[in-house]
Design brief:
The structure holds two protein chains of two kinds. Chain A is α/β, with parallel strands linked by helices. Chain A contains eight helices and 30 strands. In chain A, the strands form six sheets. In chain A, strands 1, 4, 5, 6, 8, 9, 10, 11 and 12 form a nine-stranded mixed beta sheet that branches. A six-stranded parallel beta sheet of chain A has the order 14-17-20-23-26-29, with no helix packed on it. In chain A, strand 9 (about 165-170) and strand 10 form a beta hairpin. The relative contact order of chain B is 0.13. Strand 14 of chain A pairs antiparallel with strand 16 of chain B, so a sheet runs across the interface.
Chain lengths: ~400, ~375
């Protein structure tokens, strides 16, 4: 096998339980985003643009649709004879095997995979963040600083800092302190959950972490603080740009709605750094004679006979006559029959809302991101149903 | 369906489509927003289970190759079989009318010789359809025919114009093939050949070899000459087949896609029409957008009015612009308050603010690639 300089390990095993019924049947990285994309498209496209041609994807929770979506990785130029995309679920060995006990344990259990490519560097990323980054610049920074570990960081508003792992740095960007979700944050530099390790450093750290009975085997909670305490060289790479952890219904809704305003959020239209996806639907979308669409994103294969405003429609969505869809996100192949009113809702994949239904927030004066109704995928909402509130 | 391979003749010289075929062969002419004409022929073959396809291209085949690549998007990038680009012959002025010149197949004879399949299905490239050839092949084998011609029936002179009319005998045998001369409405339904046929591969090789010395002979001519010694049958196809031989045809066949029944048959059946995948963003409709009865592709940005039209990818319609009854190919930019009616804009056309362009219903205005008006 050819030696690789840097390989990526993509953590895609979490349930994403705060996304409620959106992840009841599929893993979080496979959830639809921005119309035609799925959340994992961003991390995988970043790898494609960064010339990282070997990606191990660690799956655990309900991976079927995710695995099937990733396929051979050809959508992201990751279908290669040597390297390429590799799905890594938990497995049984000769004497033992177990489910992944934490992010660090997941990588620990796959050290053989990494050793196979004998890399100098290992990039650990997650499959549930929305951002664009060329990891090659991160690698350049890591080499320049002769770091053991580089963490990508983002400046966050001070009032939000308690939600993140917060890093204090010196003038050379060397990390001096790491606080996990601190009550009193000492800086506003948040860890993005993107770690670039020199492989020998990571390997040793994983062994030590596995031996530690008190550890929960998590990078942020255990491995990084341990390395910092050992006096290793940890550096913070200052990332500039849009980054969103769509971990909750509210942040998922907000991030989607932000993609309706191209300047502010991630520029989906940017041809220089395209987000690739495994999009099976290639038919143009049809807008009917009595349809009315405004301030919305419409994907391939949709058929729109009603009114759509301030919404995002994934591929293959059908909106029937005299229906209204407002402030909503309709996932792949959702069907909204005639004379139905949908407001501030997220409708799951292949779900059918029959005619004469009404879904809307109870209190119209709600703040922007509450009062959101979420309907699970593959569901049928019977005719005349009325849902209110969030 | 290992027993059958396909050949698509994509090398027609066509000056009938005015500017649209100026720098592109007919196979590469964009259609229906997202597709190119060859996608229909190619997808129908692939959906019928055919995994080896030879695409005969003209001398200038860059746009075709750019579109197909290795055939991955049609599932033809494979170890066994696959998509084969077969550069055609350079035909002189006289070759223009021929549909299936033997010379093109002769030049690429290895494609037919190397294969071991029993049958070859040959199609032309200027028609829009979504057909599964499974039933045709069963008929072909049941009749043990040498050649099966696929046909439809019509009494409409417009539809029969330029078509080869078949005389059918009992059990669907073909007695004669005639070029349609008559212009008047015929009293009865006439069977006409729809430029798709299945032929035994070995027979095809014999025909090509036998007529090697004659430069400009067409496969249909050779069939006609040898009808008495061949068993030729005809199979009725009950499908929409939209033929494109003029700008008016091009315009009307595109607009047919706005008819829900035709659209359902062509684009929404369980057999999809495949095309090059491009990873472009979804289309954005601003708060001033007003779109009705239209088909739009991805990557567009709509701020104005669009009615009864077809837009390819990346089209920008600025605020106040009004588009009606038109076809806009890739990346056109329509400035604020511009008005377009009955026009076909080729790729990259820019219409500046306030300009008005109107063609007529029977005669749409065609603007060539990269024009700025």
């Amino acid at each position: 096998m050819l030696k690789k300089e840097c390989i990526a390990m993509l953590l895609a095993g979490g349930q994403g339980s705060r996304l409620g019924c959106l992840t009841r049947n599929i893993a979080k990285p496979a959830v639809s985003f921005g119309g035609k994309y799925r959340i994992i498209d961003f991390s995988l496209s970043n790898c494609a643009h960064s010339n990282i041609d070997t990606v191990g994807i660690l799956t655990q929770y309900k991976p079927f649709i995710l695995n099937s979506y990733i396929g051979t990785g050809s959508a992201w130029d990751l279908d290669r004879a040597s390297g390429g995309v590799n799905i890594l679920p938990p497995y049984m060995g000769e004497t033992e095997g177990s489910w992944y006990k934490g992010t660090a344990n997941a990588i620990y259990q796959n050290m053989n995979f990494i050793d196979h490519y004998d890399p100098d560097y290992v990039l650990v990323i997650s499959g549930d963040h929305i951002y664009k980054m060329n990891y090659a610049t991160l690698l350049e920074f890591h080499k320049e600083k002769e770091a053991d570990v580089t963490l990508s960081t983002l400046e966050v508003p001070m009032e939000d800092a308690s939600r993140f792992g917060i890093l204090s740095v010196d003038e050379g960007n060397r990390i001096t302190k790491f606080q996990e979700k601190p009550l009193r944050p000492e800086s506003n530099l948040a860890s993005m959950g993107i770690y670039l390790f020199s492989w020998p450093v990571l390997k040793k750290a994983l062994y030590e972490d596995e031996m530690d009975k008190n550890s929960v085997h998590d990078f942020g909670k255990n491995v990084i603080p341990a390395l910092l305490n050992q006096g290793r060289k940890l550096y913070a790479y200052p990332f500039q740009g849009y980054w969103k952890d769509v971990g909750t219904i509210e942040s998922y809704y907000e991030a989607n709605m932000e993609s309706l305003r191209p300047q502010k959020s991630i520029n989906l239209f940017d041809p220089e750094f395209r987000i690739y996806s495994n999009d099976m639907v290639q038919t143009p979308h049809y807008v009917g004679t009595k349809a009315k669409i405004e301030n919305s994103l419409i994907s391939n294969g949709c058929i729109i006979l009603g009114e759509v405003s301030n919404s995002i429609l994934a591929p293959g969505v059908y909106v029937g006559e005299e229906s209204q869809v407002k402030d909503s996100i309709l996932l792949h192949h959702a069907i909204i029959h005639a004379k139905t009113h949908i407001e501030k809702a997220i409708i799951g994949e292949k779900t059918e809302i029959l005619s004469h239904c009404q879904i809307q927030p109870k209190d119209k004066k709600n703040s922007a991101h509450s009062g959101i109704t979420v309907i699970q995928d593959h569901h049928i909402v019977t005719e005349g149903t009325v849902f209110e509130a969030g | 369906m290992r027993s059958i391979i396909g050949i698509i003749f994509g090398n027609t010289r066509s000056d009938l489509l005015q500017g649209l075929t100026q720098e592109r062969p007919i196979a590469a002419v964009p259609f229906g927003g997202k597709f190119r004409l060859l996608d229909f022929a190619l997808s129908s073959l692939v959906n019928s289970g055919i995994r080896t396809v030879g695409l005969i291209t003209p001398q200038h085949y860059r746009p075709v190759l750019d579109h197909t690549g290795a055939g991955k998007d049609w599932y033809l990038d494979r170890k066994s079989g696959g998509l084969f680009i077969l550069p055609g012959a350079i035909h002189g002025l006289t070759g223009g009318q021929s549909k299936f010149p033997l010379k093109d197949m002769g030049l690429n004879i290895e494609f037919l010789e190397k294969d071991v399949s029993e049958n070859v299905i040959i199609t032309y490239c200027n028609q829009v359809y979504n057909i599964n050839y499974h039933d045709t092949l069963i008929f072909h084998e049941k009749k043990q025919s040498d050649i099966t011609l696929i046909y439809k029936e019509s009494d409409n002179p417009r539809e029969l114009e330029g078509r080869t009319i078949l005389s059918l005998g009992e059990g669907q045998t073909v007695h004669a093939l005639e070029e349609n001369e008559a212009q008047e409405t015929s009293p009865s339904l006439k069977p006409y050949f729809v430029d798709m046929l299945i032929i035994r591969r070995k027979l095809l090789l014999e025909i090509i070899e036998g007529y090697k010395t004659i430069d400009t002979i067409d496969l249909l001519d050779s069939i006609r000459e040898n009808l008495s010694i061949l068993s030729v049958f005809a199979f009725l196809a009950n499908a929409y087949i939209g033929r494109i031989r003029s700008i008016a045809d091009y315009f009307n066949r595109n607009m047919d896609l706005l008819d829900p029944e035709i659209c359902a048959e062509l684009l929404l059946s369980k057999n999809r029409i495949y095309t090059k995948v491009r990873d472009k963003s979804p289309t954005f409709y601003s708060s001033t957008a007003n779109v009705r009865d239209s088909l739009l592709t991805c990557e567009c940005s709509i701020e104005g009015e669009v009615e009864h039209s077809i837009l390819s990818r990346g089209v920008m319609i600025k605020s106040g612009a009004k588009i009606k009854n038109s076809i806009l190919l890739q990346k056109c930019i329509i400035g604020p308050d511009a008005v377009l009616e009955n026009v076909i804009l080729d790729k990259f056309v820019e219409i500046k603010e306030g300009n008005v362009l109107k063609g007529s219903g029977d005669n749409p205005l065609v603007i060539s690639k990269k024009s700025i008006i």
